[in-house]
Amino acid sequence: MTYHIVTYGCQMNVHESEKIAAILKEKGYTEEAPIERADIVVFNTCCIRENAENHAFGNIGALKQRKRENKNFLIAVGGCMAQEEGKAELIKEKFPFVDILFGTHNLGELGELIEKKRAQKKRVFSLKEERTETEDGIEPVRTGFPGAFVNIMYGCNNFCSYCIVPYVRGRERSRSAEAIVKEVEGLAQRGFKEITLLGQNVNSYRGEVDFPELLDRVASIEGDFRLRFMTSHPKDFSPALVAVMKKHKKICNLLHLPAQSGSNRILSLMNRHYTREKYLEEIALLKREIPDCEVSTDLIVGFPTETEEDFQETLSLVKEADFSSAFMFIYSPRTGTKAAKMEGQIPEEVAKDRLSRLIEAVNAQTRQKSAKYVGRTAEILCEGFDEKKGMYLGRDEYGRMGYFKSDRDPIGEYVLLHITSANGISLYGEEATNGAV
Ligand code: 5AD
Ligand code: SF4
Question: Could you confirm whether domain 2-126 is CATH 3.30.43.10?
């Protein structure tokens, strides 16, 4: 029997889909197959913005006919959208052919739910309120070699006024440092070369130690791997974090620090607990200590009451903070959040126009930075082969994608590239030598 998992949303979800794959394998679905042929399709959903939900609805709906023709074919819907208040009811109603519904806190039960469904005609649902345990004992099917994700904490306590995550992921829970170190040691021994520590807000990590100390411990593990972590919150940024980043060569010199807006008035409405000035001071400290460190960010346009002046402050922040790249979004009202009830919701055309101007500004900066690479070398960790381009690809420590041709299979190796041209965030080059860091 075969399976297919459709994943929406963040890296947390990508990693959880690796756990879903492990559960499916245990239940006899031994191989992955295209969605048209799989015996079970699992949707691992996201609800952070409305368009993530609409994509999922569209794709679930498309399976209706198949389900009608083949009663043994199973459809399961899980993840953040399933956990969202009222959405489970909506899914049940709108898609009566969905067999299994499970929330973010019920991933570990998927195996039992499948068995239950096999034994009965009725659909099965499991939406637990909240989970306190931090170890699920599931050995994920790693799909990102040479990269691997490691959860360090779950949930979020911040309640940024626009964000639904605290409602669907529950309160913060940290895994023990011991368990995390053990997992990373195992991955390093198996030859994984890029470890990304995951949490909605990694700086809030509170295990036996705090986050900088955890990072120090993980970076001290033997092996030639790179270490990344995401996501950090500017309100919890600390000099101790910078000191650990500076101490370890393994830790990539890229900090993903979502700013969300450059306007203090908007930041306050967003309940972010920092100012533009504080944010810029943090970056200044980081760059003073680690001059070649780069910063990437997340930015939202069209938050309720955002004026052209507020937006101009976001534009100027892009320059001042010298972001190397950014994820940029139009604000999407999420039911149940504070911001969804605020007056002064921004018309879509205005928000769209701001987004396109912001993308242009960020892209121009990214292009400028990439152009500087031409004629220099970059160390790429080769992670795959691009069929369309006929080239291998990988990232440097700053997250820039490097493409190159090779006669051998260098996937999983560090490759030194002579950069011959640049295009946006992508670099093109020729292999100079190869070797470990
Ligand atoms: N609308 C638009 N973007 C959002 N994000 C979170 N919630 C919303 C929302 N309601 C963005 C933030 C966050 C990223 C993961 O998604 O920028 O950092
Ligand atoms: Fe990830 Fe948040 Fe989307 Fe859930 S709602 S998948 S935590 S981005």
Answer: no
- Looking at the predicted structure, is the pLDDT value of residue 436 above 70? no
Structure-token match 């993980």, residue found: 218
Distance 136 CA to ligand 1 centre (A): 27
Answer for the pair 186, 208: CB distance below 8 angstroms, yes or no.
no
pTM of the predicted model, to two decimals? 0.95
pLDDT digits (tens, 9 = 90+) for 140-189: 999 999 999 999 999 999 999 999 999 999 999 999 999 999 999 999 99
Ligand 1, residues at Cβ distance < 6 Å: 48-49, 162-163, 258, 260, 298, 300, 329, 331-332, 334
d(CA 373, CA 389): 20
Architecture per CATH, domain 377-436, reads as Beta Barrel (2.40)
Largest Cα separation within the chain, whole Å, is 64
Question: Where do you find CATH 2.40.50.140 in the chain?
Answer: 377-436
User: How many whole angstroms from 268 Cα to the centroid of ligand 2?
Assistant: 23
H-state helical runs in 140-259: 165-169, 177-189, 211-219, 239-247
CATH number of the domain located at residue range(s) 142-252 in this protein:
3.30.750.210
What is the β-pairing status of strands 391-395 and 294-301?
Answer: unpaired
